[in-house]
Amino acid sequence: MAVSDTATLENDILNDCHHRMGKAITSLESELATLRTGRANPALLDRIQADYYGTPTPVRQMANLSIQDGQTLVIQPYDKSQLAEIEKAIAKSELGLTPTSDGSVLRITVPPLSQERRKEFVKLAHKHGEDAKVAIRNVRRDAMSGAEKFEKEAHLSEDALRDLQDKIQKITNQFTADVDKHVAAKEKEIMTI
Fold it and tell me: Which residues pair with 75 in a beta bridge?
């Protein structure tokens, strides 16, 4: 196998590793965005689906979401007839939020979190972080086995294989540290009163 082919295969393994680990970080960011922090945030409603003419539909697709002040979330449905369905879906959710309706928009006042509830959300943030680390380690495992397969096919030296494995481990360490940063930032945000 030519040297350029070897470099290309090595780059493919590293790029795939980087790309897939990046997806784990993106997933973590979206999971953390849905955690309540005591402030109004439209991302709180990302997982809530309301019945839209018999089809479960994300509230975000059914209404305009905005923040009135730091504590009030305003939901203005595109179709006014869906106001009751959206209200029902939010009330049934496990967020513990109670929407109030004035006939054309819903308002949700996000109450401050109790210390106990804050700790529960911090635990959940850490769980999401650990899930992301597991995903990253799975990508590392796949990349390492790909490197070993590549070594056999390309007849790489042990030193070249070790160098490739070191690069994979450095990428893994970088993304794991990134997970820790995201979780720490979310924990600080949740615990800020």
Answer: 65, 106
Candidates 36, 28, 25; CA nearest to 122 is 36
pTM, two decimal places: 0.72
Specify burial of residue 43 (Cβ count, 10 A radius: 0-12, 13-18, 19+).
Answer: middle
Q: Are strands 72-77 and 106-109 parallel, antiparallel or unpaired?
A: antiparallel
Indicate the burial class of 25 (C-beta count within 10 angstroms; 0-12, 13-18, 19 or more). Answer: middle
> Tokens representing 35?
């955690």
Q: What is the DSSP string of the chain?
A: --HHHHHHHHHHHHHHHHHHHHHHHHHHHHHHHTS--SS--GGGGTT-EEEETTEEEEHHHHEEEEEEETTEEEEEESSGGGHHHHHHHHHHSTT---EEE-SS-EEEE-PPPPHHHHHHHHHHHHHHHHHHHHHHHHHHHHHHHHHHHHHHHHT--HHHHHHHHHHHHHHHHHHHHHHHHHHHHHHHHHH--
pLDDT tens for 99-133 read 888 888 989 887 777 888 888 889 999 999 999 99
Q: What is the pLDDT of residues 139-164, one digit of tens each?
A: 999 999 988 888 888 777 888 889 98
